[in-house]
């Protein structure tokens, strides 16, 4: 089995009896959005790549299964530092891609850059993922074509070849796409010559990927900036890399502590990775204090207050924190606005929050939230990974019982959320 630690939790419903303060230590896992590209990077080398602090979530299990099908050996271990995986990609067979698994996860598009770089060919169906917008992959395709790949898109399949290898190119992204930056980075490391990616995304998970690639022998400059310069043709060796802490899990649980008027030590959480969200949280009454172990989160003395925020590429307010923050603001004093600028359909949680009594009106890309004292429990459905987290938060803060279904979405993105919350005093169970 590709991920022997993954056990589909029994029970298709999550029951939360809310209004209990969360108190205790909540360990923040490795970042989902960092570990996926890091796992794919192992395809670039025949040598061993070990990743530590791997989050045990469904997306990781699905990607592990995809990599195993492609010929990788996956060796898992658990230590005090968490789950670790060593990936041996000495025999990669690009034709053995599993189309069903690809369609379950948007990040599988990263296989394109890595397989082209390693094997000179890749064929995969259009990747899946959350239903939160158009989420084209045109930037990925254009960038890889600029690097010399021939790409054919017919009947929902992407067929890419680079028989004579990829070559460096000057690429300008129309928009700082996280996935396109990562895909092109993976391809550029093995391409002949120099690649520049301008208007690159600056999310911390990209620098984490680049750091691991550099440890493997890649030459990359401009980490954390809008211009990445990659000297290609690197002979890549193995590496041991510890995955960055998950800033989205961290921000989400910080909101949960404040919403339930509890106090959580978010172990390994890092305020410096939140970008603009740190000051938005402060203004909304989410108090964060750094300690040696992580960050203590609680409600500020003045209580929760409405704020106006707009999602934007990093360091702007993360779109992945938009839904959880909306659950917080639904119970904050005053009116808030949230403008979603990254994905065009990322308000599907609004209808669910309304079922719990939230007063939210959506006009175009902006949601206006009039805070009420407390939401009430209801039966709700998770529609994407971050919407799922928002509904858990809403349930934790609400009066009465909330029942969630569509839990695959929650499992995709969060490592043991139910158990971690229960350990901090939540009345939560899977049934
Ligand atoms: C990644 C994250 C996701 C996060 C998002 C934005 C992972 C595994 N997922 O997704 O959690 O919400 O960044 O921070 O890291 N776009 C195009 N054409 C392209 C590529 C993107 O039009 O070729 C558009 C998308 O439709 C979207 C915007 O650009 O509107 C940003 O998307 P992108 O940054 O690529 O998001 P993902 O990498 O898919």
Protein model, in words:
With 431 residues, this protein is of the alpha+beta class. It folds into 2 domains: 202 residues, Enolpyruvate transferase domain (UDP-n-acetylglucosamine1-carboxyvinyl-transferase, Chain), CATH 3.65.10.10; 211 residues, Enolpyruvate transferase domain (UDP-n-acetylglucosamine1-carboxyvinyl-transferase, Chain), CATH 3.65.10. 31% of the residues lie in helices and 26% in strands. The chain is built from 14 helices and 23 strands. The strands form 6 sheets. It has a 4-stranded mixed sheet with strand order 21-22-1-23. Strand 19 and strand 20 form a beta hairpin. The longest helix is centred in the middle third of the chain and has 13 residues. It is globular and about 65 Å long. The structure holds uridine-diphosphate-N-acetylglucosamine (UD1). The site of uridine-diphosphate-N-acetylglucosamine (UD1) has 22 residues, from helix 1, helix 5 and helix 6.
Question: Which strand order spans the largest sheet, edge to edge or round the barrel?
Answer: 21-22-1-23
Q: Provide the structure class.
A: alpha+beta
Task: Output mean pLDDT.
Answer: 95
* Quaternary structure: single chain
Hetero ligands: uridine-diphosphate-N-acetylglucosamine
Might you state the CATH topology name of the largest domain? Answer: UDP-n-acetylglucosamine1-carboxyvinyl-transferase, Chain
Q: Separation of termini?
A: 25 Å
Question: What radius of gyration results from the CA coordinates?
Answer: 21 Å
Low-confidence parts: none
Please give the domain count.
2
Helix content: 25-40%
- Per DSSP, the total helix count is 14
The CATH class of the largest domain, by name, is Alpha Beta
The amount of beta strand, in percent, is: 25-35%
CATH architecture of the largest domain: Alpha-beta prism
The CATH superfamily title of the largest domain: Enolpyruvate transferase domain
Largest sheet: 4 strands, mixed
How does the overall form come out from the CA principal axes?
globular
- By DSSP, the count of extended strands is 23
């Amino acid at each position: 089995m590709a991920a022997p630690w993954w056990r589909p939790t029994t029970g298709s419903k999550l029951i939360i009896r809310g209004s209990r303060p969360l108190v205790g230590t909540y360990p923040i896992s490795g970042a989902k959005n960092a570990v996926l590209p890091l796992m794919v990077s192992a395809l670039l080398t025949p040598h061993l790549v070990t990743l530590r602090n791997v989050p045990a979530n469904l997306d990781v299990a699905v990607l592990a299964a995809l990599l195993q099908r492609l010929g990788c050996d996956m060796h898992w271990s658990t230590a005090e530092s968490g789950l670790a995986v060593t990936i041996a990609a000495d025999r990669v067979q690009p034709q053995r891609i599993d189309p069903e698994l690809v369609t379950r996860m948007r990040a599988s598009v990263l296989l394109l850059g890595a397989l082209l770089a390693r094997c000179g060919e890749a064929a995969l169906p259009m990747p899946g993922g959350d239903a939160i917008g158009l989420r084209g992959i045109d930037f990925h395709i254009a960038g890889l074509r600029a690097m010399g790949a021939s790409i054919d898109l017919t009947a929902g399949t992407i067929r890419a070849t680079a028989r004579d290898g990829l070559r460096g190119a000057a690429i300008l992204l129309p928009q700082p796409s996280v996935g396109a930056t990562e895909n092109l980075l993976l391809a550029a490391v093995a391409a002949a010559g120099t690649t520049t990616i301008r208007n690159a995304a600056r999310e911390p998970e990209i620098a984490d990927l680049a750091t691991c690639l550099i440890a493997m022998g890649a030459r990359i400059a401009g980490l954390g900036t809008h211009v990445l310069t990659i000297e290609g043709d690197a002979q890549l060796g193995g590496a041991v890399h510890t995955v960055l802490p998950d800033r989205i899990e961290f921000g989400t649980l910080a909101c949960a502590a404040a919403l339930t008027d509890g106090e959580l030590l978010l172990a390994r959480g890092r305020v410096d990775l939140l970008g603009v969200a740190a000051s938005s949280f402060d203004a909304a009454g989410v108090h964060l204090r750094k300690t040696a172990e992580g960050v203590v989160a609680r409600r500020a003395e003045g209580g929760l207050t409405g704020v106006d925020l707009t999602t934007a590429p990093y360091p702007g307010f993360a779109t992945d924190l938009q839904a959880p923050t909306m659950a917080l603001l639904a119970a904050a004093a005053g009116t808030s606005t949230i403008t979603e600028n990254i994905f065009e359909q990322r308000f599907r949680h609004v209808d669910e929050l309304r079922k719990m009594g939230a007063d939210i009106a959506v006009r175009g890309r902006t949601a206006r939230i009039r805070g009420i004292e407390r939401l009430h429990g209801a039966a709700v459905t998770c529609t994407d990974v971050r919407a799922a987290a928002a509904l858990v938060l809403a349930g934790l803060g609400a009066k009465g019982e909330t029942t969630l279904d569509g839990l695959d979405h929650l499992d995709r993105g969060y490592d043991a959320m139910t158990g971690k919350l229960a350990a901090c005093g939540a009345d939560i169970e899977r049934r």
